[in-house]
Write a structure and sequence with these properties.
This protein is of the alpha/beta class and 346 residues long. It folds into 2 domains: 45 residues, no CATH class; 277 residues, Aldolase class I (TIM Barrel). It is built from 8 helices and 21 strands. Helix 2 packs across helix 3 and helix 7 crosses helix 8. The longest helix has 15 residues.
Length: 346
């Protein structure tokens, strides 16, 4: 339930002449009347101030491998303290984490536990973690808490990452940018129609701009995920355009994870994405020049593995989130010396 610790004044907002307050955390930029909440239900206008209702409210927390995010080119095999709260600014119809993302924040369902930024950092250090990952629900809504935690994490030698839909404002991105090392973004499709159907937003260019800004201004490691859902975001022209955009802005060795959709929530009537469709999408990405197009939610598939773009040799063999073979020395292929894009242990 909400208490004094978990209700914190919003960092980025502005008063409007009609007594509403505009939230500047996500790109919805909600204009919130007195006593009301914004679209995400995590911020309420109280006594002429806008408050976050989820500061420090943890719904999910565990130590997990980086591969589960998924990050495949960012310290493979490392352990991370993974934390989530409540709420989302998209409310996708097939959300796999709908129990927390679509939660009733003020009723406290599901239940949460307060964890201070200091306690989070302490748990990460005690658990031998490489860093802290804010995931499970949309971390942008947890902005004040993740910013405080990220600052403290950096002071203690930990790395940080967001697992995000990317619909953060530029103001918020630039505030947390100096403290965020990696940015794993869902690109849910590559057309306005797709984003209108899935995320209920009018445009997606701002998401793309944020990913570029994260890389170019703040030096974040970038990996992209598309959860492929038949009839929703599987248009081949759109997928080809997405692959071209990744190559153009981030380079041919940027990982693109094509993950298998499993039925959830309002899309529970659909079938899981056929593996053949995942494979054909992977070919599209590679035809457009991407060297590392991975398939997810298909344990044991060969496209979970990393091969050297230089000589073709197997560098990292995976089974689900477990590494079975590893043939890199730092960033270099042990067979031909080709330097693999990403961050790897020396």
């Amino acid at each position: 339930m909400i208490n004094d610790n978990t209700m914190q004044e919003t960092l980025l907002c502005r008063p409007l002449e009609d007594q509403r307050i505009q939230c500047l955390i996500c790109r919805r930029r909600c204009k919130i009347a007195p006593g009301e909440t914004g679209h995400c239900k995590t911020r309420r206008h109280i006594n002429d101030k806008l408050y976050s209702l989820i500061y420090g409210r943890v719904s999910s927390m565990r130590i997990s491998p980086i591969e589960i995010k998924p990050f495949f080119h960012y310290y493979p095999g490392s352990r991370w303290l993974s934390m989530g709260s409540l709420g989302c600014n998209f409310l996708c119809p097939g959300c796999q984490n709908w129990e927390i993302a679509h939660a009733d924040v003020e009723k406290g369902l599901p239940s949460t536990k307060y964890v201070s930024p200091g306690e989070a950092v302490e748990r990460a250090l005690e658990g031998g973690c490489k860093g802290i990952s804010w995931t499970y629900n949309e971390p942008t809504l947890w902005f004040e808490y993740t910013l405080d935690s990220a600052r403290l994490a950096k002071e203690n030698g930990l790395l940080t990452n967001y697992v995000t839909n990317g619909y953060i404002t530029q103001e918020a991105l630039d505030l947390i940018g100096p403290y965020l090392d990696a940015y794993r973004v869902d690109v849910k499709g590559f057309s306005r129609r797709t984003y209108q159907r899935i995320a209920h937003i009018p445009e997606f260019q701002g998401i793309l701009d944020n990913i570029v800004r994260g890389k170019e201004k703040w030096g974040m490691h970038i990996e992209i995920v598309t959860n492929l859902t038949l009839g929703w975001n599987d248009n081949e022209d759109d997928l080809r355009n997405a692959a071209r955009w990744i190559v153009e802005h981030f380079g041919s060795e940027t990982p693109w994870h094509i993950t298998r959709f499993y039925p959830h929530l309002k899309l529970a009537h659909l079938s899981p994405t056929p593996v053949s469709k995942l494979e054909s999408t992977r070919r599209i990405g590679m035809d457009e020049g991407l060297k590392h197009v991975y398939l997810g939610n298909v344990p044991g598939h060969a496209a979970e593995n990393t091969h050297c773009p230089g000589c073709g040799e197997l560098l990292i063999e995976r089974y689900s989130y477990e590494i079975l073979q590893y043939h890199l020395k730092g960033n270099k292929c042990t067979y031909c010396g080709h330097q693999i894009a990403g961050s790897f242990e020396p």
